[in-house]
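Risk mitigation, structural track. In case the binding assays with xanthosine-5'-monophosphate fail to produce interpretable data, a predicted complex structure has been prepared as a fallback.
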Amino acid sequence: MTKIKEIKAGAMNVQKFIDDKVRAIRQAVGEGYAINALSGGVDSAVVTALGHKALGNRLKTYIIDNGIMREKEPAQVAAAFKKLGIPVEVVDAQKAFFKAFQGVTDPEEKREAVTQTFYKDVFGKLVVKSKAKYLLQGTILTDVDETVAGIKRQHNVFEQLGIDPQKAFGYKILEPLIELRKDGVRKVGAGLGLPESMFARIPFPGPALAARVIGEVTPERIALVRKATGIVEAALKNVPAFQYLAILHEDRVTGMRDGKRVFGNQIEIRCWDSKDARTAKPTRLPYEVLEKMAAKITKSIPEVVSVTYNITTKPTSTIEAV
Ligand code: XMP
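Fallback model:
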C-alpha cells in the first residue's frame, strides 16, 4: 500500500495541482472513457469539474438518485452542472438502496450496504453500459484516515483496506483529490471556476441521509430526517460553521400534543466548528436560534416531539451519527 503524502491547503499551488491532475487523468484513461458519480457534495463536484477539464465528453457523469439525498437535490445538482456545460444523467436507484437497507441497523453494516449497492450493483451496470474502465471519485485524505484508523468505514475507500476495485467490481478507481483535505478541495474548486455555492457548500457525506438515521433506514424515516435537514440548513445557512445537520434517533420518547400523550421521535441537531473534520467543536449557537429550530421542527413534522442540540466535541463524538 502506498503511503499518501498530504498536500496542505496553505502550501498548495492550485494551478499546478490542477494541471498535474488533468495530465495524470488523461494519461491513465488514454483514449478510453471514465465515469463518475456526482452527489452535489463538495468533493464530487470538484472531481467532476476536474475530470471534465481532463476528458471533456469522455467523462460520463451520473447522479445516482439513491433515495437518501436531500430535498430535490438530484434535480437541482443536475441543473447546476448543466448550466456549467457539464452534462449529467440522473439514474433512479432508490429501490436498490432501500432493499439493501432492509433490516440493517448496525452503523458499519449500513455503510457497507451503501458501498456494495453503489459500487457493485448500480455502478457495475453503468460501467458495462458506458464501456468505461475507470471510475473517477473524490476520496480525500480524511476519508482514508478515518477508515484506516477503524473509526468509520468511509463508503469510498478500498485500496487502503486491501480491496482491489478491479477484482471486486471490475473497474479501476482514480482519486485525484486523495492528498487533500476539505480546505484544499475548496481551493481547487475555486481554481476550476466553480461557483462559490458549490465549493463552499457545507460537507455532505457519501452515505447521505443514511448517515443521519440511527436504526433502520426506511423511506419513511428518511422522509422525516430530510424534512428536519431542510429546516436546519435553512435556519443556519448564514452561520459560518463547518457543517450542520439533523439526526433521527432510534429511541422514541413520551411527548404531548393537544393535551394528549404521544410516543414520538427525537431529532438531534449538530452544528460544528472545524477546519478539516478531523476534530470539531459544537458551535455556540444563540439560544434563540436553537429554540426557533426546535419550534419549527416540532410544528412541521408531527412525528417529532423532542429536539436536542449536541454539545460534545469530536472526539469523542464524530460529525455524523452513523
Ligand atoms: P465523521 O462523521 O467521520 O465525518 O466525523 C467526518 C467528515 O466526513 C464526512 N463523511 C463522509 N464523507 N463518505 C464521505 O465522502 C463517507 O462515508 C463519510 N462519512 C462521513 C462527514 O460529513 C464529515 O464532514
